[in-house]
Structures are given as structure tokens and as C-alpha cells.
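Notes from the 1:1 (GR / supervisor)

We went over the backlog. Supervisor wanted to see one worked example end to end before approving the batch request, so GR pasted a single chain during the call. The sequence is below; no edits were made to it. Supervisor asked that the structure be written out right there so they could see what the output format looks like.
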Amino acid sequence: MGERRAARSSAPKDGDRRIGRRALLIGGAAAAAGTAVFARDELGHLWWRVPGVEKPRKEGEVDFTGARWVSASEANWRRADRPDDYGIDMVVIHVTQGSFDSAVKVFQDPEHGAASHYIVRKDGHITQMIRELDVAFHAGNRQYNERSVGIEHAGFVERASSFTDEMYEASARLTARICARYDIPVDREHIIGHVEVPGTDHTDPGPHWDWDRYMRLVRQARTATARADGEESV
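Structure output shown during the call:
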């Protein structure tokens, strides 16, 4: 979500393609043209969208321990098998430009056309609405949607009071865990704001979002995560 530089409206979907006979034949056509590698990758991306094909998943399962599951409308995300079909190498930080409850409501609205994987509340509560393995329509850029996890923060870009200690700390732990899971570098090239996504007109997370503080917290949480994972493997 977030504030646009012009009038606000729901974010556009990511130009989702519909699977069909032509798409399924792309492998043979591309191979004949000498681009078999491209065809294999393309079919891998499309495979999970063939009717009747579905990766096993448990209803209500979350990717971040402690998160509460509330499902977004299926119109606001695309089924995938990440990171096997699309590699994940980025986290995109958003601000909702509204309350937590309003964000949940619009992400459940099939007419909205957008939703993020997570929403973080001012008190640090985290709700997951889309599985990380699926592509959420959150960045307004198809390629960035496919390669990223989107995290919304309930509040307003023009209000510094929106960003509490509890929110920063909970969000940092979430981002650190995502970075650990997909081996994402903890830096500003891979943890970005919605405003930094090419082709979008959003301004979030805005001037009151303390990037220095946030990145410091993510690094601390990432170190703690690595230490805990190492202890568990002993």
C-alpha cells in the first residue's frame, strides 16, 4: 500500500499471465529455436498454475513463528513454488497509510488488486496473509513481486508516531528470519522501501522511517538467528 506521489488508489496487479496451450508449447518452440534453457525455466515458473497442480500446503500454516494467519483474497496474489521457481533475494518495506484493521480488510477485498505477505502492527503483532512461497501483488512491479517478500507496517508515512519500538523490533526479527531463510544479504540493496521499486509512484516508508536504526536491528537479529541455528545444528 503506502502513499502515492499523486492520487491514491489500489496498486495494480503484476500482469499475471494465464496458463494455456500456447504457454505449454513454449518449451518445444523455444528448444527448436535453440533456447531450451529459457523454455525449461519458463515452464518451471508456469507449472504450478496448470489447473489441478498444487504444491501441498497446510491451511493456516505460517512461515514466521508467532505470526497469526489471516488469508488475503486469492485475487491479490499468485500461487507459486518459491524459491524453486522464483528465487527470493529481496524484502520490500511498506507503510499502509491506514490502520491495521483497514489493511487487513483491503487485502481480503478481491477488488483491491494488491496485498503483502505480512502486516506489522504498532504493538509488534505480526499477521501473515500470504505464504512466502507465493507471489504477492505488493510492489507494483512484476519482477520485484516475484523475487521479494513484502512487509506492511500499519501507520502513516507523515506520522513519526506510527513507528514504535515494538514495531521496529518485531519487523527487524521478521526480516532477519526471511534473510536467513533465503540467504539474502542484510544491506540496503536487498532490503528496500516501496519508494525504491522501479516504475512505482509510492513514497513509503517515508521520511520518518529510520533506516539506520532498522538495519542495525535487522543485523542484530540476523546474528542472533545465525547463532541459534548453529546451536540447534550441534
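Supervisor's comment: Residues 57-233 form a domain with the Lysozyme-like fold (CATH 3.40.80.10).
Batch request approved.
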